[in-house]
Amino acid sequence: MRLTYPRMSARRQLRRAIPQPVRQRLYDWSPSRKRRWREVPGLENAPAAASVVLTFDDGPDPSCTPQVLEALNQAGAKATFFVLGRHVAEDPGLAREMLAEGHELALHGMTHRHHDQLSLEEAEAELRDGSEAIESAIGQRPTWYRPPFGSASPELADLCVKHGLGLAYWSAWGQDWEDSSAARIAGLVRRDLSPGTIVLLHDSARYGQRDDAEATVGSIPLIAAAARKEGLELVSLSTAVSDHAA
Ligand SMILES: [Zn+2]
């Protein structure tokens, strides 16, 4: 089957959650690709002013996601989980539990690879199969996609448009893929905590350099307390974006 892609102008339809500081960094890293990143529109105006979005990549993972859900519940926080289709298919019950707790399930792909380095057919399969795995588990298609390693490309942006996905990045992280402590993770996030911040965390140790994700679980109450002190609510990405648009 021959794949058809939207024209360049269609890329402007892409919904995006790439905070301005991140876009600047992408420009700085690769000035020759400045035009390319401009074609993936920025989303500095995405999240609502009085909120922060916690996002968790790489799950669902039965050895960690339940503890993350419990910590979010105790903190009165809602979050967005960028899940992998293959792990949703392994544990659809856990995916349904995440949704039932009021969280959002978004797409990280079917498998954890550099989707920008795949053939177009393989890249499209990552988005299509991943979305279908989520839909068959929870009855809803995801509306946001975050590429593994943050590796996007204009072709992936086109595929997002084709599959009804927005492209989401982050503007703060806890570097929790490394062996770390809850205090260090929370400290790194706190440094960049401001209205509209999108925080990158992981509810699995599968693709990181650590044995488990306990430090991430421990960081949640610390991050929630810091946000509360600033008067910032912890909401899902779609809630933040729709509040902002309203
Ligand atoms: Zn990942």
What does the model show?
With 246 residues, this protein is an alpha/beta fold. It has a single domain (13-245), classed as Glycoside hydrolase/deacetylase (TIM Barrel), CATH 3.20.20.370. Helices cover 43% and strands 14% of the residues. The chain has 10 helices and 9 strands. It has helices at 20-29, 34-39, 65-75, 85-90, 92-100, 120-138, 154-162, 182-191, 214-229, 237-245; strands at residues 16-17, 51-57, 80-84, 104-109, 144-145, 166-168, 172-173, 198-202, 233-234. The strands form 2 sheets. Strands 2, 3, 4, 7, 8 and 9 form a 6-stranded parallel beta sheet that branches. Helix 6 (120-138) runs parallel beside helix 7 and helix 8 (182-191) runs parallel beside helix 9 (214-229). The termini are far apart. Residues 1-8 and 36-46 have low confidence and may be disordered. The chain binds zinc ion (ZN). Zinc ion (ZN) binds at residues 57-58, 108, 112, 148, 207.
Question: Secondary-structure map with pairings?
Answer:
Layout: E1 16-17, H1 20-29, H2 34-39, E2 51-57, H3 65-75, E3 80-84, H4 85-90, H5 92-100, E4 104-109, H6 120-138, E5 144-145, H7 154-162, E6 166-168, E7 172-173, H8 182-191, E8 198-202, H9 214-229, E9 233-234, H10 237-245
Parallel strand pairs: 1-6, 2-3, 2-8, 2-9, 3-4, 5-6, 7-8
Helix pairs in contact: 3-9, 5-6, 6-7, 8-9
Zinc ion is lined by residues 57-58, 108, 112, 148, 207.
